[in-house]
């Protein structure tokens, strides 16, 4: 039997559900253009939502786990912040390098199709959009929105990892990190896929009209599904023997 | 293992260098096999009447297939290390097995995809399969070797809590995600439509009308990787190298503290500023595609 108090277990399950909602929200912030963006025919990063969210979030998982391994007494907030930091660095690096390709490899200025003016810089977007495309490149608003998304995704991943370590470490100290890591990855993928349906595969970020339309429903769905993931995470601990 | 600062920085630099090579080769492997989003054009071309001699593998999304070969390489390495193999030998054999597995998927998906296009008369060129598949394997082998070497360093020397296969899976997926979002744009946005004027933008109506003539003769995937190796691949390498370096650098110098997290956020701010500077210079360089209506009216 588990040696953890039931009230604590409920708290852990809720934390996992909140983390899932974080990851789901993260995907909405990321400027994902899908296949059209890979041909510079749409604004954003030229890959899929799940790929990008998982790719950046998992780097966050590595930084969060390393922080936790070296500072087992570290506060939850520090581990979560380490996750957010790793994830942000990965996405910032990928987006900036992508911008280099758009600028010097393809030769297109950065333009958003969803707004007339960039809400941060105030630059006109519509004039810089080439014929027959839905924008191209990564304008400042998309870049900043992506960074916020990465921070949320990395924080979500870090929070799940931290929570699972609290559950598994007393039971299987030696392999707790491995089980927690794999489970975190699973929850990450579940919550990266859910918003893909909501946003329809592509979204420009916080300024995209889709953002307001779908984020509420998606976060609720992710919270509910992550709650089930949390319960499963606690249930599998029942069979753990050191 | 506890390391002093100099040694830690040396290891970090080595990891950054390995990641740069891994990122570059990951992107080039996806270009030579034609995978990920730009492959939609290669897939579409025969339907538009553009038959071609380009390899068409697209095992799955790039991060997933890359994660697969990396995790196979990591697992084999881990097994060999447990049998007391010399670490370098274990990593080389692991990377080779990972490359073989990817090659199996590549050949079956190439044959399968082309077979499914029989009604569009797209032939399956056996010579393309014969000499492109080993090229895919070669790129993938180097990528696997570099990634598993990073994972080996992280697990054995730096004491990361995850095992080598799991680290390889994570870095494989991340490398694939970066390759898909960075280098593939050079292949999809420029190389596939190279007959268009540089900087004109790609009209959606051009979909599927890929360039089929090479600098000499008919274009194939080897020509594509030759071109992408000049810019797309190295920039992808830069992205992964910076990711690996900067995600560990703050904690290496400032320890596991809030200062390190703060420095990480500062790095991100620098990236935002660099992107903004790039945005301004590109807008000036290429100029607007349309004139503002009011200005037009004023001129009239």
Written overview of the protein:
- The complex is a heterodimer of chains A (242) and B (300).
- Chain A is mostly helical and 242 residues long.
- Chain A has one domain (6-239).
- In chain A, 67% of the residues lie in helices and 0% in strands.
- Chain A is built from seven helices and no strands.
- Chain A is elongated and about 65 Å long.
- Chain B has 300 residues and is mainly alpha-helical.
- Chain B has one domain (5-256).
- Chain B contains eleven helices and no strands.
- Chain B has helices at 5-32, 39-44, 62-82, 87-115, 126-157, 164-181, 183-190, 221-228, 232-254, 258-286, 293-299.
- The N and C termini of chain B lie far apart (75 Å).
- The model of chain B has no long low-confidence stretch (mean pLDDT 92).
- At the A-B interface, helix 2, helix 3, helix 4, helix 5 and helix 6 of A face helix 3, helix 6, helix 7, helix 9 and helix 10 of B.
Characteristics:
heterodimer; A: 242 residues; mainly alpha; 67% helix; B: 300 residues; flat
Radius of gyration of chain B: 22 Å
Helix content of chain B: 55-70%
Q: Characterize the overall form of chain B.
A: flat
Note the overall shape of chain A: elongated
What is the count of helical runs of chain B?
A: 11
The computed structural class of chain A is: mainly alpha
Distance between the termini of chain B: 75 Å
- Please mark out the parts of chain A with pLDDT under 50 across 5 or more consecutive residues, or reply none: none
Number of domains of chain A: 1
What number is the mean pLDDT of chain B? Answer: 92
What is the number of beta strands of chain A? 0
Mean pLDDT of chain A: 91
Low-confidence stretches of chain B: none
